[in-house]
């Protein structure tokens, strides 16, 4: 799945789970860089070690996709996610009630966006939007993402058409996130 798409000096490359694990050190490095100097830098939930623990599980998930952006050979951004399987635990930890059937997954209904990060010097240039669009070239009814309620990216996701459906705390030590959903097809 190593398809490269050049965009203004960058190349976007689609990768599968095995390829993601092969570049895990690069992904983790950019992950740590993004949180450096933020309040999350000292939060164990956002540590590079926790990212490294979560990544293999994501990479083994059905329908996992990673899109990386490179300038030359350097990683400048990435986005990854996977299709929620039937019986997924993704929606466990919802704080707010949702309509009946909302949390039922078929393995093709919902694509979960897990991470989207762009180096600081590439922000504001449309790269996050492009990574997002490339990642969501999937056959699914909807996409979902969890975003800290104080994260400025919340405004970007709502600009892209996501709507907040409630709040969700996936882990005991995680923040309570805004659970967002983007309808991609009826």
What can you tell me about this protein's structure?
The chain has an 8-stranded mixed sheet with strand order 1-2-3-4-5-6-8-7, sandwiched between helices. Helix 2 crosses helix 3. The relative contact order is 0.15. The chain has one domain: 3-Layer(aba) Sandwich (Aminopeptidase). It is an alpha+beta fold and 186 residues long. The mean pLDDT is 93. It is 25% helix and 30% strand. The protein is globular, with a radius of gyration of 16 Å. The two termini are 28 Å apart. It contains 5 helices and 8 strands. The longest helix is centred in the N-terminal third of the chain and has 13 residues.
How many domain regions?
1
Q: What best-fitting shape do the alpha-carbon axes yield?
A: globular
The name of the CATH topology is Aminopeptidase
Named at the architecture level, the CATH assignment is 3-Layer(aba) Sandwich
The share of residues in extended strands comes to 25-35%
Tell me the span between the first and last alpha carbons.
Answer: 28 Å
Largest sheet, in brief, is: 8 strands, mixed
The beta-strand count equals: 8
User: Helix count?
Assistant: 5
By CATH's scheme, which homologous superfamily applies? Gcn5-related N-acetyltransferase (GNAT)
Describe, in short, the structure shown.
By secondary structure, this protein is α+β, with helices and mostly antiparallel strands.
Task: Looking at this protein, list some descriptive labels.
Aminopeptidase, 186 residues, 25% helix, eight-stranded mixed β-sheet
């Amino acid at each position: 799945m190593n398809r490269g798409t050049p965009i203004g000096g960058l190349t976007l490359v689609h990768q599968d789970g095995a390829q993601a694990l092969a570049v895990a050190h690069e992904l983790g490095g950019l992950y740590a860089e993004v949180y450096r100097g933020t309040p999350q830098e000292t939060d164990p939930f956002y540590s590079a070690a926790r990212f490294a623990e979560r990544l293999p599980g994501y990479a083994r998930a059905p329908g996992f996709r990673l899109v990386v952006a490179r300038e030359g050979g350097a990683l400048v951004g990435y986005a990854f996610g996977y299709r929620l399987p039937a019986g997924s635990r993704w929606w466990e930890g919802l704080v707010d009630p949702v309509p009946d059937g909302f949390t039922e997954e078929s393995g093709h209904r919902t694509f979960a966006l897990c991470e989207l990060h762009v180096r600081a010097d590439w922000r504001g240039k449309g790269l996050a939007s492009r990574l997002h669009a490339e990642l969501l070239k999937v056959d699914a009814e909807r996409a979902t993402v969890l975003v800290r309620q104080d994260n400025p990216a919340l405004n970007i996701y709502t600009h892209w058409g996501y709507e907040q459906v409630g709040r969700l705390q996936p882990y005991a030590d995680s923040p309570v996130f805004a659970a967002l959903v983007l309808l991609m097809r009826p």
